[in-house]
Each structure stands twice: as structure tokens, then as C-alpha cells.
Design goal:
GO terms for molecular function: peroxidase activity. Pfam families: GSHPx (PF00255). This is Glutathione peroxidase. InterPro entries: Glutathione_peroxidase, GPX_AS, Thioredoxin-like_sf, Thioredoxin_domain. Belongs to the glutathione peroxidase family. The protein has 185 residues and is of the alpha/beta class. The protein has one domain: Glutaredoxin (3-Layer(aba) Sandwich), CATH 3.40.30. Helix content is 37%, strand content 12%. It has 6 helices and 5 strands, in the order ααβαβαβαββα. It has a 5-stranded mixed sheet, sandwiched between helices. The longest helix has 19 residues.
Amino acid sequence: MSYRLFLAVAFALPLAAAQAADCPSLLKEQGHLQKLRSKTDLDLCSLYAGKPLLVVNTASHCGFTPQFKGLEAIYQRYKGQGLEVLGVPSDDFKQEADDSAETAKVCYGNYGVTFNMTQVQSVRGDAAIPLFKGLAEQSGQAPRWNFYKYVVDRQGKVVAQFSSMTKPDDPELQAAIEKAIASQP
């Protein structure tokens, strides 16, 4: 083993262990959560630990689908302050495309989304992915419809939840995001 490789491994392993220890339980053990339009797994701990996060379950064929534009505006407005947005397409309410390419076209092509989107996932009940089980447990509410919004602080705690009716530019949602941004890791 070369000296450079040895140093890389020697310093990377403790750093990875420290990052894993600092990862809130909400983001751990997500299993096989792939990025939309990709075979790349999303490691929620490495992407979002210590960062404020807005998590939204989405659907491509819903009356609330135009909220993608507002969600992207939120992301652009606050990403410099550390905010991350994660969109999770779901067909739990029977309004998601059958094809992930169509879902990607709606998100990326029609609305110009630049924040991370996952492949289609279940967000309610026993079939829900661990992230949404944790969001429901912490907040006391699973998504009631598409575009349900959860604001998570830097410690991985849900600080607010908002119904589908809440538009991304709503002052209460923006205040909750700002509160999450101001939280300390």
C-alpha cells in the first residue's frame, strides 16, 4: 500500500465513523433510496446531517404539482444558508407517473428542479420508507396528500409540518425554514 493511500484510508475511516455518529436517527438506515433518473443511492447522512431540510412528498399528476416551481424558489433562496430540499415522488395517492422517466421530465424538464429527488417511494403506512415513518412519528402526522411538507432542523428534528394546501411562499412555511436554518447542529 502506498503512503498516500495509507493516509487517505487512515484519515477517511475515522471521519466517516464520526459523521455516522453525528447522523440523526431520522436520516439513518434508509436502505436502498435511489436518486431519480439515476442508479445512484442517496446517503441521507452524508447529504443532510447537520443541515436544515425541507422534505416533500410529490406527485407528477396532481393539482399541487405546480408547487415544484415554488419549492425550487425556496431552494434557490435558502441554499446559501445551508437549506436542502428533498422531493420524494409517491404514488400512494394514485397521482404519480408509472414511468420514472416521465416523473423526471415533470420535475426537471417542466419545473427546472435542481434539488434532490428520489425514485418513487411509499410515504404512508407500513410500506412507507423509514424517512417518512420517522417524519410521521416525530410530527404525529403522515402525509395526508401529495406535497405535504416537513421542515427538519439541523439536529434532525421535525420543527414544523404543512399541508398540501400550504404554498411554498407561505410566510409560516418560510418562518419555519428560517427557524430550522438558525438552529445549531
